[in-house]
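Homework help board

Subject: predicted structure for assignment chain

Our instructor gave us this sequence and asked us to write out the predicted structure in token form, then describe one feature. I got the tokens but I'm not sure how to describe them. Can anyone check?
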Amino acid sequence: MEDLEASYCYIDKTIGDEIVFILPDTENEDGVHINLKIGIAMEKLAIISKQFAQTHPFRLGLAFGTVVLVQKVGGGYKEWSMDGQTVNLAKHLHSLPELRKPSPFAGAFGMLTNDPECEATFPTRLGYITFTGFRWNFSAVQRTETFKGNTSALVATF
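My token output:
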């Protein structure tokens, strides 16, 4: 998790062997473009996945878009949580057939088709993920998918 935090990511939670993290677009504050941050994070994940490839197959569901941060407070309890269609999309990506049996790695990237930046930025973001991050010899297959709840997204599996 330290590797992700060093790559501009914020860890939201861990569930068993899953890590939920956000990569905020803070270019106005730190001057680092979000596409470069994606590449740095993917490079860290690639190193981790190679270290554990024999014992822990690696699946990645990566969604890009707007999230809502919600603070839950009550009776000595306080927690921040992420919500929104982008969070749901990240979960839905794991239901794609290509991610069911990673050998040793399988991933999917998605953006909601109702995101006004989707068509224009999807190819560039995908390029940073598949080239800068993993540098393995694989190709991304791009298509439109409709998930539970009629969520439509442009996705690429790799």
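Reply (TA_rk): Your tokens look well-formed. For the description, you could write something like this. The CA atoms of residues 53 and 117 lie 34 Å apart. That's the kind of observation they're looking for.
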